[in-house]
């Protein structure tokens, strides 16, 4: 962290009146980050509930073409990020981030409030697009604000807590969505509530979702978060397109020329391309290669999830004694080697252990990657860097989901035509189905990214 940054938090936990920090401060780093984390928990829960509700509404509106309607709405949620996220990063660095966050939450609440009354697919697509724009502003504004609320030595724990808030809320949101669907059906017969359409698919979930975003906005409005230097120097209502392009170029140049930032971004991107292939290919690999049956894929995903939790908790426990850049690079290498070993197994139990190890390394990569960026990137650039990172994450996940099955199919055909689908060395025979070859290729890609991260981080240390 730049010691000259006026918005940067100090390296030590704050004391009040010379007394030891409270339990909240010791765990979260500051009371301000605790409020921001509560806002993220509420907002993430709302995001997941809203996602499920929008899918349900799309299915209702689509009628006989429900699947196509859901696909169109999902495209409206995903595609804008590729084009609008870079500009959103510029705006986050230029505007007051506190205002960006609570106004984005309120904007999402207003858009969501209209969804129970939507009857047109195109209106739902437009609403989904507006929701996505607000999210594109909220997420990098939040990430850019974390180092201004948390001492440097506590950033690893802060990012671990953020990861838990972002993804740990999905099971809770899924349960709430199911309960709200039942509640809506029960209230549907009350004539005084008919104008709210509570019995329609997703309507009750939407109303609760509105409340989550209002609550998140209230939490954020209480933050003592000073505006960034750039927002103080600029007229926030004036849009200078030439300056916007200069800011974009400045962010991209920094991302590609700084060895630490470049290696972190590349490692996370390739890790997602490789690791993301587990989702579309894991079920086939479990059933056809490991003999895991119908439930095997769920067990593999659970092992990876538990592994991620172990990795995140372990880092939080030893954060002050961990050389972050070295452990980050080793975690990327470990993720690739774990995937390579797991894909090489032909029985379920050893594959399960390696998938768990992959989860440990993946959790470490995520937390340490965000922590390194928080510590390395100056406050003036954080919005653009994290906006670019989120764009990269979306692109790489979509690429892995789309390419994984096609790659497995082509490699399987090639294996069958060249070596009959297996190779033998004495008494040892190794089957080479396409799904295994695709996972091997993904693992080698991650290992390559890990080696590049080792080199880049070493080069960065040499330049200092």
What is this structure, in a nutshell?
The chain is mostly helical and 464 residues long. The protein has helices spanning 23-28, 31-62, 66-78, 80-94, 97-114, 121-145, 155-167, 170-187, 203-221, 229-233, 241-257, 259-276, 278-289, 296-317, 324-344, 348-376, 382-419, 434-463; strands at 422-425, 428-431. It is 76% helix and 2% strand.
What does this structure look like?
The protein is mainly α. 76% of the residues lie in helices and 2% in strands. The chain has 18 helices and 2 strands. It has helices spanning 23-28, 31-62, 66-78, 80-94, 97-114, 121-145, 155-167, 170-187, 203-221, 229-233, 241-257, 259-276, 278-289, 296-317, 324-344, 348-376, 382-419, 434-463, and strands spanning 422-425, 428-431. It has a two-stranded antiparallel ribbon. Helix 13 packs across helix 14 (296-317). It is globular, with a radius of gyration of 23 Å. The two termini are 14 Å apart.
Order of strands across the widest beta sheet? 1-2
- CATH homologous superfamily of the largest domain, by name? MFS general substrate transporter like domains
Question: What global shape is seen?
Answer: globular
**Order of helices and strands, N to C?**
HHHHHHHHHHHHHHHHHEEH
Number of strands: 2
Name of the CATH architecture of the largest domain:
Up-down Bundle
CATH hierarchy, class of the largest domain: Mainly Alpha
CATH structural fold name of the largest domain: Growth Hormone, Chain: A
Query: How many DSSP H or I helices?
Result: 18
Q: Please state the average pLDDT score.
A: 80
Note the beta-strand portion: under 5%
CA radius of gyration is 23 Å
Number of domains: 2
